[in-house]
Amino acid sequence: MARTETEAYVLTRPLARTSPVIFASPHSGRDYPAEFLAQAVLDRRAIEAAAILGQRFQLADLRAMLNEPGYLVDELARRHLIRPEAGELAFAHALIRDGVYAALTKERRNHLHRGAAAMFAARDPVLMAEHLDRANDSVAASAYLRAARAEGA
To answer: For residue range 99-123, what is the model confidence (pLDDT) as tens digits?
Structure first.
């Protein structure tokens, strides 16, 4: 990031290149207990799942995506990646979310969108259809049709 003449900050390189720094350490892996490394992997999975859910999301949805009912976002908040906002969680800035999303491989992004679709299937058919569409799933069109019928009923 660089400061402009107006005191605003602008990105000088894509976040995808800097995202490993979020989880990197100046020490070798031998210096950290397995618990710390496992938490770092979980936090990385969490930030990726959050990027799939959108700029604002519910902690319960993030926990469901991770299949971790007790997951806490403390480390992500400490690193100023996400923050609580009006009873929800939100990325601290849209560029953070966009950078994380862009850094996902196509396969990972599709996998996470399918997971989100499955999570929303019972309670929000529109969100389910949107996530199937973003996953380039062949059943997205029929999911949109079912969602439209459900909203019309």
So the answer is: 999 999 999 999 999 999 999 999 9
